[in-house]
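Consider the subject:
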Amino acid sequence: MSKPSARERYTLVIKCRDTKGIVAAVSGYLADNDASIVESNHFNDSISDQFFMRTVFRREGHAMPQPAQLRAGFASIAQRFGMSWQLYDERVKPRLLIGVSRHGHALFNLLHRWRAGLLDVEIPAVFSNHEDMRSFVEWSGIAYHHLPVGKDDARGKATQEARILKLVDELKIDLVVLARYMQILSPPTCGALAGRCINIHHSFLPSFQGARPYHQAHARGVKIIGATAHYVTNDLDEGPIIEQGVERVSHAHTPDQLAAIGRDIECAVLARAVQWHIEHRVVIDGGKTVVFA
């Protein structure tokens, strides 16, 4: 008799009011269904009295039911504790749609990680409001969708965003990654992508807005620069934060050097945020996140 596949792993993520017996109920259910826990993390928010748990388990024997049956069986436990929960099959690769404008560093880093096997996803397409990244994306074997939008063209913007959402639907996208996509998404689009759209930006907001933020920061003599990755919401650049990174700088750095350091931080922070999201390590809790990194 063949052994169960080592790749047959599942991730269970739950959120509910904290109460006695949750961990015992979850672990008992998995043990009763021939599953072996390989990773488990939980957190109690003492302020909100909410409980969060992420459990990774694998098939230990041949008696473990298929995912649909596992979900059906767990439903009664979830109902008893009032859980919001999801059960993910790790054999199913998340599908990413990446948005980019003219700055390619974050896109290059994500595609490098994907090509190297470090980012275990499918990337069927990239969209952009410019043509600059087409050759690199198509060289990588990925479809490139040029979706231009005119400045102050509300009707054109609505049409363009409808095309983005059509791509999300047709390509069965799990996560949209804005890898320095320099367009503000409208409230309806933000709503349609709630919890499945990640953005990256420099850490100077809201102090240094608009063009040439690193020149503005240099003029003010900043000593720390960084980047923030967060989920996209109607509140511009204020969605639930997933990850941040910082680097100390000094008076000796030129604006161009500050920008180069900032680009490196943006790449690292966005890569971690995307990795944690696809591994189901991030739980949104109102305006913040719980991250089991």
User: Anything to note?
Assistant: The CA atoms of residues 89 and 183 lie 34 Å apart.
